[in-house]
């Protein structure tokens, strides 16, 4: 009797394992056709030494020897990113004291510009007078190759939206202030529906939660949603049921975690597409924060053959050429 029970138990376990495999193997999934969706982080920007970065590190002061003269978060940089092959360009925003959104990365003005103080505590009129290339140096302050060349180059979000009316944008909210989510929702809700579907917003949990409440059709991402989607899908995605954190969002997938995702790549990507979620693969995660992107030919080669999801990169020209 005991032997028969063990036999039935073994058959049941095998049947369950087979069902899980068939429900999740990508070998039996229809291949997603098309080229990868390329996201240019900060458009085309100056690269910097990423060793030991902290939240308050002045990256302009550790710029690598420049290979071009583009400055991040400028109209010119964004246009160059799209021209190089980007499908999406990422921009950073801060609210201003005169009701605008400034497109600028840093929490303060002191590192990158000739201004001083917290970015959001200034008017857009004032920040239009700043030199956003002022602080860049690749030799410890001996020379500043972009000083004087960035005056008036900090755009508003309205300028970006009007300059690129049919382009896809990823907007990064730099604060944890829920009122910023309200202000941004007011801007985005004023756009036509066909424009809003080309926008994704990510940032702190609090402003993103508020934005979701006020503009529920906008795809979003926050640290909480990213971790919730990733861990939830690894935990029970084999059932085909998606966590709520995986619906109508952006999902960032560290390339070293991708093989652990049920149905990777094609079945997984199809599930996310059906949930109106855009997936971008980023560099490997090792416990100290997400990598910045797929930036080299060696890293690109780690993607599956004929991969058709999203790729997050700081080197759009390199990756776009590899895709071609």
UniProtKB/TrEMBL annotation:
Residues 52-323 form the GP-PDE domain. GO terms for molecular function: glycerophosphodiester phosphodiesterase activity. The keyword Hydrolase applies. Keywords: Hydrolase. This is Glycerophosphoryl diester phosphodiesterase. It comes from the Bacteria. It comes from Rhizobium viscosum. It is an enzyme of class 3 (hydrolase). Its EC number is 3.1.4.46. Gene3D superfamilies: Phosphatidylinositol (PI) phosphodiesterase (3.20.20.190). PROSITE patterns: GP_PDE.
């Amino acid at each position: 009797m005991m032997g028969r029970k063990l036999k039935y138990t073994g058959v049941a376990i095998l049947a369950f394992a087979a069902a899980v495999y068939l429900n999740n193997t990508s070998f039996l999934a229809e291949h997603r056709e098309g080229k990868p969706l390329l996201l240019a982080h900060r458009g085309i920007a100056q690269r910097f030494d990423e060793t030991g970065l902290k939240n308050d590190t002045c990256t302009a002061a550790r710029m690598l020897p420049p290979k071009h003269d583009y400055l991040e978060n400028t109209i010119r940089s964004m246009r160059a990113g799209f021209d190089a092959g980007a499908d999406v360009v990422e921009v950073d925003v801060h609210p201003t004291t005169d009701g605008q959104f400034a497109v600028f990365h840093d929490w303060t003005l002191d590192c990158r510009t000739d201004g001083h103080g917290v970015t959001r505590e200034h008017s857009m009129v004032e920040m239009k007078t700043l030199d956003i290339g002022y602080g860049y140096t690749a030799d410890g302050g001996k020379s500043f190759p972009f000083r004087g060349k960035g005056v008036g180059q900090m755009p508003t979000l309205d300028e970006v939206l009007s300059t690129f009316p049919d382009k896809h944008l990823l907007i990064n909210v730099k604060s944890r202030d829920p009122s910023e989510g309200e202000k941004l929702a007011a801007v985005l809700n004023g756009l036509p529906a066909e424009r809003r579907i080309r926008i994704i917003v990510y940032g702190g949990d609090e402003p993103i939660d508020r934005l979701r409440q006020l503009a529920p059709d906008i795809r979003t991402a926050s640290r909480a949603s990213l971790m919730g989607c990733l861990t939830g899908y690894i935990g029970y995605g084999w059932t085909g049921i998606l966590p709520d954190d995986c619906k109508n969002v952006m999902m960032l997938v560290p390339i070293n975690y991708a093989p652990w995702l049920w149905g990777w790549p094609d079945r997984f990507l199809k599930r996310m597409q059906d949930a109106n979620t855009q997936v971008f693969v980023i560099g490997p995660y090792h416990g100290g924060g997400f990598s910045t992107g797929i930036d080299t030919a060696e890293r690109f080669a780690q993607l599956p053959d004929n991969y058709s999801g999203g790729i997050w990169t700081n080197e759009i020209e390199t990756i776009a050429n590899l895709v071609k």
